[in-house]
Amino acid sequence: MDDPEQFCNVASADGVPVGFAVCRMFPPEEEPDALGLPDCPERDEVMRQRKIGLLDSVSIKEGMKGRGIGTLLCGRSAEEMLAGGCTMICAMAWKSVSGKTNIAGVLTGMGLSETIALRGYWNRMVSSPGGHNCPICGAPCQCFGVFWYRTYPDDA
Questions:
Q1: Strand order in the sheet with 52-60
Q2: Model confidence at 129: pLDDT above 90
Q3: In whole angstroms, what is the distance from residue 62 CA to residue 10 CA?
Q4: Which residues pair with 8 in a beta bridge?
Q5: In the CATH scheme, what architecture does the domain 6-119+145-151 have?
Q6: Any idea where the domains of the chain sit in the sequence?
Q7: Is 67 a residue whose pLDDT tops 60?
Q8: What is the tens place of the pLDDT at every residue in 30-55?
Q9: Pick from 51, 19, 59: which is nearest to 34 by CA?
Q10: What's the pLDDT at 125?
Q11: Which end of the chain is more exposed for a tag (fewer CB within 10 A), N or C?
Q12: For 10-30, what is the mean pLDDT?
C-alpha cells in the first residue's frame, strides 16, 4: 500500500479490527484494469471523469454487521477520495443469484445509484481456469457484479 492512489481504512472495536475498506483512485484510462466494464453508458460516464474513486473491497466481521461500521468506513473513504480529486465514487458490488446485494443499503445511503448488472463478472477477476469459486453457486460463479456510482462536480 505504498501507492498514494490506494488506501485502506480499518475500523476497530476495543483494539480489534472489525472491518475494512480497500480503496483505489485512478484516471479514466485505467478503467479496463480497475473495473472492466463492457461498452455501455456507464463506461462512457467513467471515461468522462477526471479521476475515479473505487470502493474496491469492503468487509465487516460477522457479528458486527448492522451497526453502522460499513457506513462509517465508506463515508470516510468517500471523503478521502473527494479530497484526492475524484469526480466519481463507485463500487462494483456483489449481487447473489438470489438477488441480494449485501452492501446495497450503505451504497444507497451514500447517494450511489445501482446501474448495470453483469452476470458472471467475478469469474473475470480471478486467475483460476474454473472461474471464481462462489460460496453460493460454486465455480464458475453465476452471481452478478453490479456497478454503482455517483458523480461530483469538480469543486466538491
A1: 6-13, 16-26, 52-60, 88-95, 144-151, 113-119
A2: no
A3: 15
A4: 22
A5: 3-Layer(aba) Sandwich (3.40)
A6: 6-119+145-151
A7: yes
A8: 999 999 999 999 999 999 999 999 99
A9: 51
A10: 78
A11: N
A12: 95
